[in-house]
Design goal:
Elements lengths: L1 E5 L5 E6 L6 H8 L5 E6 L4 H11 L3 E6 L8 H13 L7 E6 L1 H13 L6 E5 L2 H7 L4 E6 L2 E8 L4 E5 L8 H17 L3 H5 L7 H17 L14 H10 L6 H18 L7 H12 L6 H7 L13 E9 L2 E8 H14 L2
Parallel strand pairs: 2-9, 3-4, 3-5, 5-6, 6-9
Antiparallel strand pairs: 1-2, 7-8, 10-11
Helix pairs in contact: 3-4, 5-6, 5-8, 6-10, 6-11, 9-10, 9-12, 10-11, 10-13, 12-13
The chain binds glycine.
């Protein structure tokens, strides 16, 4: 088992490895001493995972199965969680264990962080996206009016229990799409990751590599005002692609399209060296991701201005000089739309 310490939010650990779910009971007792525990679990998980978590947490645990997709990651969904916690009489002495992928984690952690101005929670990520990225660093939130993560708060978990065995039952498409986030870490920080990408699930070592990189960014810039924005590589265009298709394209796949688009953009701006595009393309292909990003760009252009990191006139793009060397670049809306439009028109 690998332990990665996050020096934020009072300090907490991420436990990564096969069988990490055996830590549920210990971590819940430490996080909610004497309190009850709500197990908020993705209703679409194999029932054996949910039962095992319930058994581990014991009789003080009350289950709330949560049915939520990216298209339903809304305040209404958070309200369902508030109603459950309120009706069951949960107080600040109690806490939540959140079992599921990025959408479950973002929504339920947001609800936990705002119910009674915040009750403690533990995240137990079950997908590649959540195990390598979204469960760490304290971002919680929901979408609003077609804009990704428009409403949210920074709130850190008491612990992240990342059992890589959950990936064994993950549907193949979801596993493949999640590799978009893994490739992102290779692109921005550790090009060696690109050699370790495959169609299979990432193992403890690869997940831990990504999490340690994330820890470095979060420790420097907890509230995402500067350096942490580098983790947004591929996300500016990726989020616009997700919104444009009503979230029919999954997050990790959209990030993959967004990274390829960002590299082409960097080439047009004279920032990105030759060879970067081919290296990323080949990593995406190796992982089984679709790389046909150009047709996705035109429909996404009108959604770019809604990016929450825009300052009202410019988009904050993350570009690559080369693999492992990201740069931040502000681009006026019109310039970004024109350049991306021309990349779309040119095709491959
Ligand atoms: N997923 C990017 C971040 O947490 O900043």
């Amino acid at each position: 088992m690998t332990t990665v310490e996050f020096p934020v939010g009072g300090g907490y650990n991420a436990y990564i490895g096969p069988g990490a779910a055996s830590l549920f009971s210990r971590e819940a007792q430490a996080a909610f001493p004497g309190g009850r525990c709500a197990l908020i679990a993705d209703a679409n998980l194999p029932s054996a995972h949910i039962r095992a978590a319930q058994d581990a947490l014991g009789p003080g645990c009350t289950l709330m199965p949560l049915n939520v997709s990216e298209a339903q990651k809304t305040l209404e969904k958070a309200s369902e969680i508030y109603a459950f916690l309120n009706d069951a009489g949960f107080t600040r002495a109690d806490g939540a264990v959140i079992l599921g992928g990025g959408v479950t984690g973002d929504t339920a952690a947001f609800a936990a962080a705002t119910y009674l101005r915040g009750i403690p929670f533990i995240l137990a990520p079950t997908t590649v996206v959540s195990q390598t990225d979204s469960a760490y660093g304290g971002k919680t939130g929901v979408d609003h009016a077609g804009c990704k993560n428009r409403i949210g708060v920074f709130a850190h978990p008491k612990a992240v229990v990342c059992d890589v065995d959950f990936l064994k039952t993950l549907p193949e498409r979801e596993r493949v799409c999640g590799m978009g986030e893994v490739i992102k870490y290779g692109a921005i920080a550790d090009p060696g990751i690109l050699e370790r990408v495959s169609r299979g699930a990432p193992d403890e070592a690869l997940i831990s590599t990504c999490v340690r990189i994330k820890r470095g960014f979060v420790a420097q810039d907890e509230h995402d005002t500067g350096e942490r924005r580098i983790l947004n590589f591929g996300h500016t265009v990726g989020h616009a692609i997700e919104a444009a298709c009503g979230f029919a394209v999954s997050h990790g796949q959209a990030v993959a399209y967004g990274m390829l688009a960002a590299v082409r953009l960097g080439e047009r701006l004279g920032v990105t060296r030759a060879g970067v595009f081919d290296a990323l393309l080949s990593a995406c292909e190796k992982a089984g991701l679709d790389t046909d990003f150009e047709p996705r760009l035109s429909p996404a252009l009108p959604y770019l201005r809604r990016d929450k990191k825009s300052d009202g006139a410019n988009l904050d793009f993350i570009l690559l000089e080369k693999l492992g060397r990201p740069v931040r670049k502000k681009l006026p809306f019109g310039d970004a739309e024109k350049l991306l439009g021309s990349i779309a028109a040119q095709g491959r």
